[in-house]
Amino acid sequence: MRRGRGLHAAGAGPERYQGYGRGLRGISLAVLQALEDGLEKADADPSVKAVMICGENGKFSAGADIRGFSSPNRQGPSLAALVSLIESSKKPVVAAIEGIALGGGLEVALGCHYRVAHVKARMGLPEVTLGLLPGAEGTQRLPRLIGVPAALDMITTGKHISAHEALKLGLVDEVVEANTVEAAMHLANQVIGQPLGPRRLSLRPVPPLPDTDGFLRAARLRVRERARGCLAPELCVQAVRAATELPFSAGVRRERELFVELLSSGQARALQYAFFAERAVRRWSAPGGAASHGAAPRPLRSAAVIGLGTMGRGIVTCLVKANIPVVALEQNLEYLNVGRKAVMLLLEREAKKMEQDAQALDFHNPARLQFTVDFDLLRDVDLVIEAVFEDMALKKEIFHKLSRICKPEALLCTNTSALDIDEIASATSRPEQVIGTHFFSPAHVMRLLEIIYGRHTSPTAIATAMQLARALRKVGVVVGNCFGFVGNRMMFPYVEQAVFLLEEGSRPEEVDQVLEDFGFKIGPFRMSDLAGLDVGWRSRQGQGLTGPSVPAGTPARQRLGRRYSPLPDLLCESGRFGQKSGTGWYRYERAGGRTATPDPGVHSLLAQYRHTHGIRPRHIDQEEILERCLFALINEGFAILAEGIAAGPEHLDVIYINGYGWPRHRGGPMFYAATVGLPRVLARLQHHSQAHPDVPGLRPSAFLEKLVAMGNPPLKEWMSYLSQQSPRL
Ligand SMILES: CC/C=C\C=C\CC(=O)SCCNC(=O)CCNC(=O)[C@H](O)C(C)(C)COP(=O)(O)OP(=O)(O)OC[C@H]1O[C@@H](n2cnc3c(N)ncnc32)[C@H](O)[C@@H]1OP(=O)(O)O
């Protein structure tokens, strides 16, 4: 507690706060109690004329402790009651918002009669991202303060807004560059004696719209479309609707009902798991005991990107956006000019999106972004990312050159989705500096960066690559070296099942629909069309699975003693490469078009194919489609864990949520498996494996079998059952 000039400053001291780490403070029960006591004292003390609430360490509040939501015995004062208590105070209460005011923290500020924010403060109601809604009357107060459209936008997206935006919306009364606490006290002194009624948000009407009902109906459709199958955004809309239709107290009751519905939904648990999983993967470990806590990154002051194809362009754009000076290199002037134009276009677009920060990008300045065909310019950079196409010989030639040219401490990264990092590193004299960085397309948009260590990669190199991910605002996940690493390796059996389902009777649009209804952004066939069918075709040719190197007499639907589907190869042979060629598993309006239409040409190709191979098509129900695709993917996940390619199931889940469009509200594939129950996953895999004995992807992993035999332990204990089995960790 602090007092000053007749002002009672209620800010709980460090001993009363529950910390989250890095100076973050949450609203614990102790904090609630301290605020309640402080307010009661202030109200009772005639020498106190006004109250100011602030955080400590320059942060107002990160909101409630997310872990507390899953605690079965939450007791003590409620946040909603505290917010009401603040609002009903007879003395003016001013919030001094520094750093962040999120979730319950912002709801506390909404209970105050005035809000002053520091210019660098950020505010938001991120509950929706945790599968919840602002349950301390925030859905009822915010629309009364800033109107339905702006409130709905904040509540349904969970976005953080800047102090300036907050001022524009009327969320705060004042923005200051200097001392926020002083400014809040100053304001409090000025408003002493002024009527508080108009400042109490619960007493205000919601500002009317010309057609509130129509607006809310459209909003509901929009969030449904955006967050397929995810409950929270839709229930947020319902809560805001209650604010527009009901008196405050009835609206609050409705908010509570909706909050409880969300809290008890599995989705809130999944989304909160995803929040912590994304933070847990920052702590990495690798063979030989190397781990994040013992490794420091090298500085990243400059970078080079080799190859300005789709991936290279996106990577250059990310680096420029992260304010890291870049040298962009191509093999000849013709490719360089094409690449330069494309990068500039991307950067112009990004600059437009970033509005006021655009000038900071400064990408016309050669000191920030330089295009060249001269390898010598790579001499002094701290980091090189090679992003040429997936050709081992070419990559090795480039890495050989890099190890001669670059300074000894430079980090040498290869952007590959499957190739062997050790083989690439073997072309250099410093394999400890070589690491895989698997970006996802479009690289300047997708959040995932798979970071692959090789046999000789040093802990410093791993730490530096993780630092790169952070600088690029990506989620970096450290994984071991194997074909396809984690993401693509799990994807292979998933896509394989999808194609087998076509052979047996499904259509691409049926399979996609089932997986999109499950919550995937796009189904496997739309995804293949988007990525380009020729990519996998080239890879299969390289592996000797298709093309002239397949030995004569090999059965069409068999390779290496296991079932194989040549369907994707047949599509490529007929020039169907997906969106880029205008036809693939679907038809598009033109080459490069994006609107997928079911293609009668593919339907007749499938009919002809089944006829040729004597396959009698059957009706395949949604459950089988879902189980075969998802459980095959999950099964591979268990194999990956058993081999020590990833440090835990959270790593796989974070990869799938951020790189493969897995629905976040289902928590990732391994979390989903735990939700379904491992005994059921195992039983269904056994069933499908019996029906398709020539498909190894359906044969249950030994690790899955072991976990079931051990009594289906919770996900966070899985890895403890591996200690003796894992050769790599
Ligand atoms: C009846 C209903 C009553 C009340 C309802 C209240 C609703 C809420 O308040 S829900 C919570 C709303 N708040 C949030 O969602 C904030 C979540 N946190 C963040 O977005 C970020 O952590 C950040 C505050 C923006 C800070 O980011 P950064 O600086 O990058 O730090 P992090 O690495 O993310 O976090 C550090 C450390 O703190 C942990 N943590 C952060 N916030 C919370 C939280 N609200 N609850 C529990 N733990 C939190 C985070 O996990 C990190 O921990 P590590 O152990 O270091 O991983």
Automatic annotation (TrEMBL):
Its main location: other. The keyword Lyase applies. It catalyses: (3S)-hydroxyhexanoyl-CoA = (2E)-hexenoyl-CoA + H2O; a (3E)-enoyl-CoA = a 4-saturated (2E)-enoyl-CoA; (2S,3S)-3-hydroxy-2-methylbutanoyl-CoA = (2E)-2-methylbut-2-enoyl-CoA + H2O; (3E,5Z)-octadienoyl-CoA = (2E,5Z)-octadienoyl-CoA. Residues 303-481 form the 3-hydroxyacyl-CoA dehydrogenase NAD binding domain. It is found in: Peroxisome. InterPro entries: 3-OHacyl-CoA_DH_CS, 3-OHacyl-CoA_DH_NAD-bd, 3HC_DH_C, 6-PGluconate_DH-like_C_sf, ClpP/crotonase-like_dom_sf, Enoyl-CoA_hyd/isom_CS, Enoyl-CoA_hydra/iso, NAD(P)-bd_dom_sf. Pathway: Lipid metabolism; fatty acid beta-oxidation. This is Peroxisomal bifunctional enzyme. It comes from Willisornis vidua.
